[in-house]
């Protein structure tokens, strides 16, 4: 947490210096490089720690943390706007905005440094014992190192699952406002710009709610089953959008909100899925490696939707036809993710870390054996 505080906050400070000196690459280094490293560390550290504090409800724990990660944008965005209005939109105002961000984040993140601790080895909530059918639920009692995890097919299957789920969700979220306006442009009830902004807010709320609700549900139904819902139902919802087209604004909004809730849920549930398969030993490091799928999906999703919509617009198409092919691709990606999830099996024991040798209890003085047997006295 301390490393995250230093790198994330200093990234803003370096960016502020870059803006003040009009050095573009210094801004990139600070905000994009140093700050990005801090963001990644700050994201993973509390998630892996919470799973150790809540071994009975890891989905709820990760959902809470990742919901907070997504909800930060609801605070940061208007706060940044207010600061720019207060300081001004010129070079000096932007530099001051970066500076205040960095210092404020340092103060708040220091609370995490002081308060967040890893539980003692072997800690369990009072009255809780692991389920005796853990093996049937893909929940291991063993541990796998990050080095060995990336050598397993389970890691790469989950990589595909996460990449497909995120690609299908973030593509809609990135183009939500113009999408709903394009969809209903030629209908009797076109969507205004202000209504489209409200639609984006609804999708963001669905994304946040899905992170907590669906990941908590996964503690009850199991991680594999909840991903069946994310991927299978998500594919059906895309099919619904393709078939219904612009027939109902309410159906469009409800379907896309459900898709975004599955996107958020899939994002929040994957750390618990990793914990089930690989244990808690290095789950944070494993999670960090898996998030490369998020990085690729974050580029691929918007690129797919934007490029296809632009090409369709150049061909003179309008309305839902701008997105029909994109939706069919998203449906196909979710089906691929569904198949990958079905192929997940327990990790081969050869990848497990060796169990620590049991410590022998020292013999008490009265139980110390006589070195001379009685029959030889």
User: Which second-level CATH architecture of the largest domain applies?
Assistant: Up-down Bundle
Task: From the 3D structure, determine the CATH topology of the largest domain.
Answer: Growth Hormone, Chain: A
**Unreliable segments (pLDDT under 50, ≥5 consecutive)?**
357-377
- Distance N to C terminus: 64 Å
The dominant shape is globular
Going by helix content, strand content and strand pairing, the class is: mainly alpha
The count of helical stretches stands at 13
Largest sheet: none
* CATH superfamily placement of the largest domain: MFS general substrate transporter like domains
Percent helix, as a range, is: over 70%
Elements, N to C (H/E): HHHHHHHHHHHHH
What is the rounded Rg? 25 Å
The proportion of residues in beta strands is under 5%
Q: How many beta strands in the DSSP annotation? A: 0
**Given this structure, which CATH class of the largest domain is correct?**
Mainly Alpha
Please, what is the average pLDDT? 86
Number of domain modules: 2
Overview of this structure, please?
Pfam families: MFS_1. One of its GO terms (cellular component) is plasma membrane. This is MFS transporter. It is a multi-pass membrane protein. It contains 13 helices and no strands. The chain folds into 2 domains: 1-117, no CATH class; 134-349, Growth Hormone, Chain: A, CATH 1.20.1250. Helix 1 (2-20) packs antiparallel against helix 2. The chain has helices at 2-20, 24-53, 58-87, 91-115, 146-149, 153-174, 176-183, 193-221, 223-244, 249-278, 283-290, 292-314, 324-342. By secondary structure, the protein is an all-alpha fold. The protein is globular.
